Amino acid sequence: MFEHAARELHLFLQVSGLALSFVTSQNQPSLFDSEDSASVEFTNESVEFVYQRTDLTKVEVKRSKRAKRNVTAYRDNDKTVVTVPTRMAKRDIDAYVTELVNRLDDRDERTSSQKALEQRARSLSLKYLGQDLLKTHKVPVKIRWVTNQNSRWGSCTPDEGTIRLSHRMQRMPSYVIDSVIVHELIHLLVTDHSPAFYALMNKYPDHEKAKAYLDGYSHAQQFLKPE
């Protein structure tokens, strides 16, 4: 399980940006708290996430001897990579890059939409917590992506029914994102990290694998420097 998370993590080891740490507060418990939460700044004003289309001029094109006919596009961390046959002409490459990258953007924009996020949270709540917390919580629940959470993966204000997810997770594996969503949904019921919290969190089967992935990501950001 942990080896699998480590293999997936390699896609993120060259990310540049702030060193990551995890903080908690009375009103906004977060995922995997740090020992020194006081050292991390937090901005109360949430910034709405707006999907940004890929800059085609920054797409990395790789020629591959194995790709005799097929052209593929994929995300590698913050990069978008298109693999093409070794002998393909540049004019043909440009056309494929435009088409395939636009497809990737269309897919990612759909999955990052507010409606898709709410449906995802509702499904996870029903599956692992036995209720639709978006409906049964004492106040209406709103879940959204934000861009100002550089020191935490998710945060929850139970009294307001507000859950915020860091946009940095957008291209992480689905099981990692789902783990953070479940974590924050549970905080609508249990505000601390008591045994009652973990009794619910452990119902999500990939919790430990997701934790290993995020811990590894945090370690890489703090101690590994891009070449």
Notes on the structure:
This protein is of the alpha/beta class. The protein folds into 2 domains: 2-51 and 113-223, Zincin-like, CATH 3.30.2010.10; 56-111, no CATH class. Helix content is 38%, strand content 14%. It is built from 7 helices and 6 strands; from the N terminus they run H-E-E-E-H-H-H-E-E-E-H-H-H. The chain has helices at residues 2-9, 90-111, 114-129, 133-136, 174-186, 195-201, 207-223, and strands spanning 60-64, 72-76, 79-85, 142-146, 154-157, 162-166. The protein has a 3-stranded mixed beta sheet with strand order 1-3-2, covered by helices on one side. It has a 3-stranded mixed beta sheet with strand order 4-6-5, with helices on one face. Helix 5 (174-186) crosses helix 7 (207-223). It is elongated and about 60 Å long. The two termini are 29 Å apart. The relative contact order is 0.18.
Q: How large is the share of residues in beta strands?
A: 5-15%
How far is it from the N-terminal to the C-terminal residue, by CA? 29 Å
Q: What would the CATH topology of the largest domain be?
A: Zincin-like
Series of secondary-structure elements, N-terminal to C-terminal:
HEEEHHHEEEHHH
**Total domains:** 2
CATH architecture of the largest domain: 2-Layer Sandwich
> What is the highest CATH level, the class of the largest domain?
Alpha Beta
